[in-house]
Specification:
652 residues; single chain; 5-stranded antiparallel beta sheet
Length: 652
Amino acid sequence: MRYLSLVLGLFLSLSLSAAQPGPDSVEYYSKDSQFLDVKVSPDGKHIAVLTPIEGKNALAILNSESLEPTTVARFGDNKEVGDFHWVNKERVIVQLNYYKGWMEQPVSAGEWFGINVNGKKRKNIFGYRMGGMQTGRKIKQATATYGYGQIVDLLPEDKKNILISVTPFSSSDNVLPELHLLNVYTGRMRSKGRSPVPSADFLVDHKGVARFVSGVAANGQVRLYYRDKKDADWALVYEGEPTGENVDYAPLAFADDHQVYIAARGDSPISGVYRMDMKTGERKLVYRDKEVDPSHYWFSADGRHLYALEVEPDYPSYLFIDKQRPETALLKGLIQALPGMQVRLSHQSFDGRFAIVNAFSDTVPGVFYLFDAEKNSLKQVARARPWVETAKSATVKPISFEARDGLTIRGYLTLPEGKEAKNLPLIVNPHGGPHGPRDWWQYDTTTQFLASRGYAVLQVNFRGSGGFGSDFERAGYRHWGDKIQYDIIDATRHVVEQGYADKQRICLYGGSFGGYSALQSAILEPDLFACSLGFVGVYDLEMMYTEGDIPEHESGMRYLNRVIGQDKAQLQAFSPVHNIDKLKAPVFIIHGGQDERAPIEQAEALRKALEAANHPYRWKVMKKEGHGFYNDENRKVLFEDIAGFFDEHLKL
C-alpha cells in the first residue's frame, strides 16, 4: 500500500491564487465545487475541509483561527478521500475511495484510514488492504477485514474507539452484518454481536448502545428488531410486506430510555413523526405535514437526539421537535441572522460549543461559517463555489398547477437573470428516478448554466416523485410512459399559458429517467417540443429486466415488477425504441460507456431505432464515465454540447 502524501501549503495556493472562471464561461458551471464539506474538531481549534485538488478529493486540516493548513492529505494515483469524521480533538478518520482504470468515478470498498491533525500516526485502520490475515482466538494485531465498514456511532465518550457495522463481501443478499468496536489508532476490533437481519442499519440510544436494527430479508420484507438493554436478545417488533412496500416504522432517535421517535405513516399517505413507548406500543403523533414527507431530520452533535425536521413543499421550512435542545435556539437565531437563506447546522463539536453552519439559497451555492457559542460569534470560513457572483445567478420560482386529471403537481421554474420573464425559450428538465428523487429549491449548476444562456428551465415533481406521500409516489407506478409524461406535458403548457415561455421554442433534456422522459414526452406530443436530449437514459423498458445492475439482485427484480410490470404490450408502448415513428424532434443521445444503471446497450438500442427510421440524431459517448459525468473536463464537454444543441434548434 502506498503511504499518504502530505502537501503542506497546497490548499492555500490553490484556493487563493488560481484563476477563477467568469459567469460567461462554461467552467463557471461545469467545474466541481471548491469546498464540498467542512467539519469542526471537538475543541474547535481545527476544521477539516474536503476539497478537490488536481481532480481528486483531498482533506485539508486548517487552524480555525488563521485558516492556514496544518496538513493537506492526498492519496496515491488511484485513491481519494470520501467521507470523513473527527473522532477526537487530534484525529480524523477518512473513507477511502478507489478509481478503477476503466471508470472516471471512484468507488468505495468501505475502508477507513486514520490521521492526526499534524499528519502523524497515519494508518489504514479498517479494510481488506490493511494488516495480514490471522487465525486463532488471540489476535495480537489489526487484521485485514474482507467486508464493508459502516460507522454506527462515533462514541464521543470514548476517545479511542468507534462503533462500526461490518458486512462481509458476498454476492448473496443474505449476509448478516456484525457490530464491532474499532480502535481508531490501531485498527483492532472487538465484536459486539451480530445483526439478526441482512442489510442492517443500527440505531443507538443516548448511551451509545445499539438498541434497534432494521434490515431487509431475502424476500424483500423489511424487518425491525429491538432490545431493551445491552446484551439482551433481539426481539422482532415489526415486519413489512414481502414486496418491500408500505414500510410504516422507521426509528429515528431515542427520546428517553424506553421511548423512541419514529417515522411512520399510520393511516395517512404522508409520513409523520411519532413518539412511541416501547413498553406499551403506544404511539403519539408529534408532527405531520399536510402535503409532504419530512425531507431531512436533524440531530444533536452526538447524533443521538432528534431536535428538528424540514419540510419542502416548495420553499424549505423547519419544524422543531425538541424545543428544549440548545440546537433549536441556535438554529432559530441563525435563521434570523441570515435572512433569505436556508440555514443548516451541518456539523457540531461533541459538546455543542462549535458548529459549522451551511447557508444556501437558489442563487447561493453554499457558504460555510464557524459558530462559537461561547463567544456568540459567526465567522465565514469557506464558500462552496467562491467564483459564483450571486447577483448574476438565476432565481428559482416554485410553481403549482392542476394536471389534466385534477391532481396537484408542483415544480420549479428557473428564470434567467436580466431578461423579462416573458416568451422565453424553455428547457423542460425532468428529474431522474422516477420514484424517490424529486426536485428542490436550490442552486443547481445545470439549470443555472442553461439560464445563463437565456433559457428558462422547468423542473416538474410529477406523480411518482418522492417526498409527496405514498399515494402520490404509487400513482406513477406502471405509468412511466403515460401519466408521468402527461404531468410533464401539462406543466409545459402551464408555463406557456402563464406567458413565461414561447410555445415555438421548447426542448426537453433529462438524465436517467429524465432522459427517458425527454424522448417519451416528445413522442406523446411531437408538435410541442423542438428537440430532445437524452442523457444516460433508459429507452427500452423490457431491457431493464436483462441489462444493467438492477436485475442482478432479487430486490431489483421485485422493484421492476412493482413499478413497470411485465405486460409486454405496455412495456413496448412505453418504450421510445418502439415508437420512433411518432417522434418529430431531432435527438441528441449522450451516454457513459461504463454506466451500470442504464447500460450503454440502452443508448445503442435507441441509436439503432433512430437509424432504422432515418430520424435525425447526434451521438456522444464518454467511454470511462458512468451514470452521470464525474470528470470536470467531461462535464465541460457535456455542457458545451448541450448548449450547442439547444442554440441550434431554439435559434437564440
